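Case study 2.
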Amino acid sequence: MDEFLIEQYKKIAKFLAACLGKDYEIAIHQIKNNELELVSIENGDVSKRTINAPLSELALKFVNEKRYEDVDYEANYKGLTGKHVLRSSTFFIKNDKGKLVGLMCINFNLDHINKSIKKINEELSEIFNLIEDNNRFVEESSVEYFAEDISNVITNIIDPIVKEKNLPVARLSFDEKMILIEELKKQGVFLMKGAVSEVALQLHSSEASIYRYLKKTKDA
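Prediction:
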């Protein structure tokens, strides 16, 4: 009966390894002749162990202290193997009489997570450098806005100029319109399809007028 139980856990170990992936090592220890033997291991590269490798000191302590009499498992404690940090858990395999017949140990290699965290931190650092340089925030004109359509793009350019210079959009003078046209051209607005029509709409002008303004800009 106990042998059958261990064989079932060996199948479970294969199943868990297939589901969880190569960073999860699943080991089955069996009690034979009052000794714990490693009889099955999946993804053994995590700890570099093979069949018959010794039990860890902590797992031995769990068994020696008969921890299994009070709990069914010990989960998420720190494990170490070489330079690798593991998140380890031990399940106590008990028969129908509550007798300990083996252990199922799961060791998760945290290397990929640690590398991912490092990569994220590096990317966050780059992002923060975009908005802060030597404790100075970048100027608003350097911020990239992602608009849904051309009207939003043009509005995002026109509005700051209008506010800064306190310009009356509904009754702009020729010179004031030239200022706006120059800035829009400088920022490449007129490279976008439909820009002339949208600018004309927002400046309360005709398309023909916008084309005339463009001819009078620098480098026209």
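The first strand starts at residue 24 and ends at 32.
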